[in-house]
Amino acid sequence: MAGLCAPALAADITLVGLVGAKAIVVIDGGAPRALAPGQRTAEGVVLLATEKDAASFDIDGRKRRLHMGQAYSAPARPGRQDVTLSADSRGHFLAAGSINGSSLRFLVDTGATLVTLPAAEARRLGINYLQGARGQVQTANGTLAAYRVKLDTVRIGDIEVHNVDAVVTEGDTMGVTLLGMSFLNRMEMKREGQSMTLTKRY
């Protein structure tokens, strides 16, 4: 039982708002939540204090100060790096993670050659995709303009991969980021029923 009481390590924390003494945060790409001073989350994050445009937290036992919109990514634990995902009611595997240190949600798609981002999401993440090589991709929504980019980091849980090839699509009405094979081909993938475990190979 002692192991069940150990605080989990948050993969990604973003300060998205301040309301009075409370801080609005997004943890591991989940829904925004309000923290009061002294409040501890299930991930082991404690709000210490808020300022005009920043907040101080106890994260993994260390004090860290985040400005509005700033994200903190916890370092991966040493040893085996893996993450287990659960399928939703439609059989899709969704994963909270980050690209270049900014949080978002992925849809695991083994049919996608590359990690694929809608243009609106790429702009939110500060990716200047218009400098990439332009082409076209076929999607369920038809033929879309697409730009090849290189992502510095793609992270899910304890797994972080560097220099990941990706594509940004314009006119994509799905609005979801696909975790394609440019990330997944570096993983050992094991599916058991409604669970999928990804283990980093290299």
Describe the structure.
The chain has about 200 residues and is mostly beta strands. It has 2 domains: about 1-75, SH3 type barrels, CATH 2.30.30.830; about 80-200, Acid Proteases (Cathepsin D, subunit A, domain 1), CATH 2.40.70.10. Helix content is about 5%, strand content about 55%. The protein is built from 2 helices and 17 strands. The protein has helices at about 120-125, 180-185, and strands spanning about 10-20, 20-25, 35, 45-50, 55-60, 60-65, 70-75, 80-85, 95-100, 100-110, 115-120, 135-140, 140-155, 160-170, 175-180, 185-190, 195-200. Strands 9, 10, 11, 12, 13, 14 and 15 form a 7-stranded mixed sheet that branches. A hairpin with a 3-residue loop joins strand 4 (about 45-50) and strand 5. The longest helix has 6 residues, at about 120-125. The radius of gyration is 18 Å and the shape is globular.
Question: Overall mean pLDDT score?
Answer: 85
Question: Helix segment count?
Answer: 2
- The poorly predicted ranges are 1-8
User: What is the subunit organization of this protein?
Assistant: single chain
Rg, alpha carbons: 18 Å
Distance between the termini: 33 Å
Q: What is the succession of H and E elements?
A: EEEEEEEEEEEHEEEEHEE
| Count of structural domains | 2
What best-fitting shape do the alpha-carbon axes yield? globular
The CATH architecture category of the largest domain equals Beta Barrel
The number of distinct β-strands equals 17
The name of the CATH superfamily of the largest domain reads Acid Proteases
Q: How many strands, which pairing sense, and closed or not: the largest β-sheet?
A: 7 strands, mixed
Sheet/helix structural class:
mainly beta
Helix content: under 10%
| CATH C-level category of the largest domain | Mainly Beta
Examine the coordinates and then state which fold CATH places here, giving the name of the CATH topology of the largest domain.
Cathepsin D, subunit A, domain 1
